[in-house]
Description:
- By secondary structure, this protein is mainly α.
- The protein has a single domain, classed as MetI-like (MetI-like fold, Orthogonal Bundle).
- It contains 11 helices and no strands.
- Helix 3 packs parallel to helix 6 (about 135-170) and helix 3 packs antiparallel against helix 7 (about 175-205).
Amino acid sequence: MNAKSVDKIWTVILYIVSILVVSLLILLIGYVLIKGSYFLNSAFLFGAPKVGEAGGGIGPMLYNSFHMLIVSLLITIPLGVGAGIYLAEYAKEGLFLNVVRLCIETMASLPSIVVGLFGMLVFVNLTNWGFTLLSGALAITVLNLPALTRVSENAIIASSQKVKEASLGLGATRWQTMWRIVLPSAMPQILTGVILASGRIFGEAAALLYTSGMSAPALHLSGILDGGKASPLSVMRPAETLAVYIWKLNAEGMVPDAAKIANGASAVLILMVLIFNLLARIIGKKIFESYSGKK
């Protein structure tokens, strides 16, 4: 068999594998959306959950998921991108760098349940915070930090190879080159890492069971004024997220239509992840075009 025939065979095989992967994703998303589309209405999205009776919504859990997303990303992005910049531009080969890379690889391989138990011991018990949104955000940061660091480092290395020497040759400082040239060029890849982190925040349940809790207390706008724990902006309150609520519905069956509510909540979860992916890619493309001069 000649080389052209082998190339055609492997091309067909790779196309088939790609089609199977896409088809599997479409079937999975379609099944979840069809099963949960019945509950996709304003009463379900913004209503409060019920205990012991049919119906109820996911409003508090959906809000907690967005709040958890924002707080966790505010912690993860500076640390992850900063670590990526250090490893790509400033770190020197040696024992210390090898230890740092070993720590990153070890953290990346930790199961989420182990991170949850660690978060309960440190962020819940040791700090005396209890089950709070901040404890959950810090636990999620431990999970997402290694992946975002590696994505940022690889993106910066790949981007700096083309533009760093030209920028330095024109008289720019090292930091000006990093801030105005390299980071904008690497932004699409870095946003990919942020997308992965966002999806894990929305879909994570095991780590949050032991850190942010399994309750969603009623939130009052008056708490914003007096700084109370019932404030929607407070990070020192229990915060049951959507993924945790889905797990609790399937595990405990607190309401007669628990399966239907879980299907609806799963559909919302899938839609949110899809929206994040689309928005992040659009924003990343716009940022790249604004710095590269493309229209």
